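Thread: pantoate complex, take 2
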Amino acid sequence: MTAPILRRLADLREMTARWRGQGQRVAVVPTMGALHAGHLSLVEVAKARADRVIVTIFVNPRQFDNADDLAKYPRTEQDDAAKLAPYAVDAIYAPDPDQVYPPGFATTVSVAGLTEGLCGAHRPGHFDGVTTVVAKLFAQTQADIACFGEKDFQQLAVVRRMARDLDIPVEIVGCPIVREGDGLALSSRNVRLSPAARAQAPVLYRALQQAAGAIGDGVPVAQALAAARDAVLAGGFASVDYIDLRAADSLVPLDVLDRPARLLAAAHLDGVRLIDNLGLAPA
Ligand code: PAF
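Output below.
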């Protein structure tokens, strides 16, 4: 059954007040639509952990640092609703823009430190846009649980810190990356790759795997990262924003694998910015 699509905050509030009155636990899965199996895996986790599930669909203009990227972002609401139908979610909240940013909206939620490197260094203002909209979605849904994918690993860390710092009573659940058979991490941006670029795209994941293997074998981190960058460029990517080893919790740069870590990458292929990451544990 297709879930009701709510456009107005008042309608969302009415629905969630009813659920809360019945003592039900509510989960939210925030998305910008163009849903794929990665999003649907978040919905499955949300359904397992809560009585009610809201999927939000809102292409948030404040988190785009590039007007062209915003214009090209796929908008596929009818398809998204059809993809969600088998999961029987309780509501799709696809707010009208003024429900999120009413006239005169003047507030920015900003997390320092964690947002400064990696994607934050290459996408000015991006994380302020993310934390502002996610704070709004938490306030609007008043969800008990929120599910985010680990593909946006820095985003997950930033949202966790925001919720902790602002005492927002929501449990943030990170969910594993879902990949295509050839290793490419699922992303709403993948549909913008030409067939030739789509065939090249798994190079990014393979380079991360090779770097992880090399670091595990004792190759110095800097050398393994440089080799990964060379492999990505040789594999057809136009440029690499970063390939870096970071502590999994604080995201501080590591030059030795001495704690749980994450190897993170962002690179450009065929005019599309792809990101990926994988976890590493010290021996
Ligand atoms: O990961 C996303 O799709 C977006 O950054 C999010 C969390 C829905 C906020 O707009």
